[in-house]
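Appendix B. Chain record.
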Amino acid sequence: MTINVNGVELYYEKIGNGDPIILLHGNGEDHTIFTGLIEKLSANYTVYAIDSRDHGKSSKVKHLRYMDKMEDVLEFIKKLEIKKPALFGFSDGGIIGLLLAIHHPDVLSKLMVGGANTHPSGAKSFLIVLGKILYFFTRSNKLKLMLTQPDISDAELNSIITPTLVIAGQNDFIKEEHTVSIAKSIPGSQLKILEGENHGSYISKSEKIYSIIIEFLTEFSQ
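Structure tokens predicted for this chain:
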């Protein structure tokens, strides 16, 4: 299915019945990274899995900004009249989730972010160097996004009132101290560093991430 938000066509899949949960993928990916997770969650939840702008089957754009992506998700929620969804965002999807919780604190019921950073410096140096080399040759807007954004302050994180779970792999591309700092800056948040996992390995292990998500959602169920 597609929906027009902020002048772009977003592709999404809606599957299942129950309380709503939105899934947001990372840079250079699309909703299909969550295929196994969607199957499991849809047994008890209404799952909305979105291709963000310039990704998957959604509209291509010349420039990418996390704030634009956040506004897309906000408009998506409003247009479909989704009441207080939970949101799980992986990597770039997690950044979008953080921005949504900061700027629109009443929209989400729960927030789960995996492998997110609040500044490019939160990524390990080898990733930044590799990204700069690849950008020199490709001028990719996705690489430019990774190298120049986001810029979320500790004070902004401290304003989040949505129950939040912060996840990262033990061997993540994101520095562990950066992930820990994010969790410490969000009042009352929970932190899970997943032993033996890298940036996205736990996403492909759908049973593992499903168990983590269900445990968090159940704990904060109304």
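Further analysis of this model is presented in Appendix C.
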